[in-house]
Q: What sequence folds into this?
């Protein structure tokens, strides 16, 4: 059973078909890259997986659960999120404050602030220097 999958996804913007009949499966421990030209539908596909774009057809599966019609805020609770780059959403916040904000969602799992600090020791030492501890 795959961790995340798309089955025959069709994605549209009005009459424009942005993505046609895309299917894939991502297995546990697998790393997958989506490569394509600008305008090929990558972002639209990711938005559909995260629940921010409603498919015209097909399904999004998280494990064996069909999450196609589950709202994006409920998908976040299940672990599906889209983190767009370059939006400068939290520019006034420090890295640590961003991590703490992420923790506030209350999602269970291995990744917490302490684990991130262990994986990125340079980040941890810089944050300690700035806070004076």
A:
């Amino acid at each position: 059973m795959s961790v995340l999958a798309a089955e025959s996804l069709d994605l549209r913007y009005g009459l424009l078909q942005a993505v046609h009949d895309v299917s894939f499966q991502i297995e546990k421990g697998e790393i997958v890259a989506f490569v394509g030209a600008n305008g090929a539908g990558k972002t639209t596909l990711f938005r559909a997986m995260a629940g921010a774009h409603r498919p015209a057809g097909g399904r999004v599966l998280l494990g064996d659960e069909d999450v196609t019609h589950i709202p994006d805020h409920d998908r976040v609770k299940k672990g599906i999120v889209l983190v767009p780059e370059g939006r400068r959403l939290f520019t006034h916040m420090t890295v640590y404050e961003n991590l703490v904000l992420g923790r506030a969602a209350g999602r269970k799992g291995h990744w917490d602030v302490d684990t991130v600090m262990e994986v990125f020791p340079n980040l941890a030492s810089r944050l300690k220097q700035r806070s004076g501890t």
Summary: The longest strand covers residues 16-26. The beta strands are 4-13, 16-26, 57-62, 65-66. The mean pLDDT is 87. DSSP finds five helices and four strands in the chain.
